[in-house]
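Design job #97: recover the sequence.
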């Protein structure tokens, strides 16, 4: 049952809708392959900074998916989104997960390789 004032849970109101990060610029122009390498290094080392591996895996999948699928992934993994662009998230145990913008989107000064 529940309290007279309770409503069926459809999330606890804390659910933030994910959005694309604001455009950003890397300190120096980088190529797509350099960006991919930076992302790989981040995802390889991220679990060593704390938090649960399955949450890191869910965040990676969300970061690499379109917005609709990313929303489903973070909701399914019970990730608490602090910043709508996914740069700051928490798991249900309160562990903090910080994602750099370069794993979420491309910089405006990306060098297009031919």
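Job complete. Output follows.
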């Amino acid at each position: 049952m529940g309290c007279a004032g309770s409503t069926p849970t459809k999330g606890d109101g804390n659910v933030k809708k994910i959005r694309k990060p604001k455009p950003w610029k890397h300190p120096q122009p980088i190529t797509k392959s350099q960006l991919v390498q930076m992302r790989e290094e981040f995802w390889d080392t991220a679990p060593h900074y704390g938090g649960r591996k399955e949450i890191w895996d869910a965040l990676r999948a969300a970061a690499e998916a379109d917005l609709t699928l990313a929303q489903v992934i973070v909701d399914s993994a019970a990730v608490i989104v602090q910043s709508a662009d996914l740069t700051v998230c928490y798991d249900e145990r309160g562990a903090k997960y910080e994602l750099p913008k370069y794993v979420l989107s491309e910089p405006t000064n990306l060098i297009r390789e031919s």
